[in-house]
């Protein structure tokens, strides 16, 4: 879920703010709609886009290449005259077709456009300016910029700085069948490791074998981090042998969805464009899990650009019914956890 702050034009010309909890899917669509309104709707570029998409022209209409748009036309579309052009509702409704939203009456389209000019564009411009100033604009982040280095990269994780309470099970016994191990809780697995009934290295091998058995069927794994996993598992076993226990995640295998950067491994965001991208950055969540002794076994699928169920390697499936799909930015982790 996401919370959106909407500025509404009320009767009498007054404006009001309304906060609403909406699905991320809806939030993305609304954000894209306002972004498209504020950036591409106005001026000649909007008309050119409509022609290219054949949404406002007949099949026989000739379409010029985007490069044919003159610099003067592009400048004109960004000029102060742009607000005057919002009176052309037909162009706006053309762009609304991209969101299957052309059912709005002309008066509502006009109202949305005026709101974008009066409120959304100034906010977007202010956010864009702040991104270039204080800490990457984190005090008022812009939807137009992503920076994987946000945060203090040099900050060291203090594993003793904060602790949380968790159940302290007793009498946990290792199942006779390794298949049953996959369905134990994290707390249960942690107790097996703490009491020496299983090593982290052995547990890591069990989960990697299971991932490889079902990963291709579910299309849920982007990269196996096998070499890193066994290195971390051996370190977890060594620490435990020396009497150091880091907590309930000590030696526990886990997967990260592939929007989280881990050095030397791909961070693809599920996108074909970035399928070979390697970020030499340790994401904060990865640092925290590593400091807690957890063992990374795989980078898991996320829908393209963390959206939907389709990514460059396929379409993530529901393990309860592989004719159905697991969707959203955590499509891969959801399928793997459920399986």
TrEMBL record:
InterPro entries: Amidase, Amidase_dom, AS_sf. It comes from the Eukaryota. Residues 1-47 form the signal peptide. Keywords: Signal. GO terms for molecular function: glutaminyl-tRNA synthase (glutamine-hydrolyzing) activity. Residues 202-339 form the Amidase domain. Pfam families: Amidase. This is Amidase domain-containing protein.
């Amino acid at each position: 879920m996401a919370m959106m702050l909407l500025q509404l034009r009320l009767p009498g010309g007054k404006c009001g703010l309304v906060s609403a909890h909406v699905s991320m899917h809806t939030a993305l669509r609304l954000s894209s709609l306002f972004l498209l309104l504020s950036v591409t709707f106005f001026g000649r570029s909007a008309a050119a886009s409509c022609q290219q998409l054949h949404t406002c022209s007949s099949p026989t209409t000739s379409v010029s290449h985007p490069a044919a748009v003159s610099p003067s036309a592009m400048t004109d579309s960004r000029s102060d005259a742009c607000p005057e052009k919002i009176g052309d509702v037909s162009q706006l409704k053309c762009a609304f077709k991209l969101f299957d939203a052309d059912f709005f009456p002309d008066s509502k389209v006009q109202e949305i456009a005026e709101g974008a000019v009066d409120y959304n564009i100034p906010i977007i411009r202010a956010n864009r300016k702040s991104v270039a100033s204080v800490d990457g604009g984190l005090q008022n982040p812009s939807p137009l910029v992503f920076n994987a280095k946000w945060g203090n990269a040099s900050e060291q994780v203090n594993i003793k700085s904060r602790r949380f309470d968790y159940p302290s099970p007793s009498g946990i016994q290792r199942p006779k069948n390794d298949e049953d191990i996959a369905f134990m809780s994290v707390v249960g697995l942690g107790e097996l490791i703490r009491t020496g009934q299983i090593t982290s290295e052995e547990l890591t091998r069990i989960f990697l074998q299971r991932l490889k058995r079902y990963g291709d069927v579910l299309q849920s794994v982007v990269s196996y981090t096998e070499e890193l996993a066994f290195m971390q598992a051996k370190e977890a076993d060594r620490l435990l042998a020396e009497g150091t226990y880091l907590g309930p995640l000590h030696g526990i295998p886990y997967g990260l969805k592939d929007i989280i950067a881990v050095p030397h491994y791909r961070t693809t965001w599920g996108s074909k464009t970035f399928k070979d991208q390697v970020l030499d950055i340790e994401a904060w969540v990865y640092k925290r899990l590593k400091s807690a002794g957890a063992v990374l076994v795989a980078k898991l699928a996320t829908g393209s650009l963390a959206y939907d169920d389709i990514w460059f390697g396929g379409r993530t499936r529901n393990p309860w019914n592989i004719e159905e799909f697991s969707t959203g930015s955590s499509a891969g982790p959801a399928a793997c956890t459920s399986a």
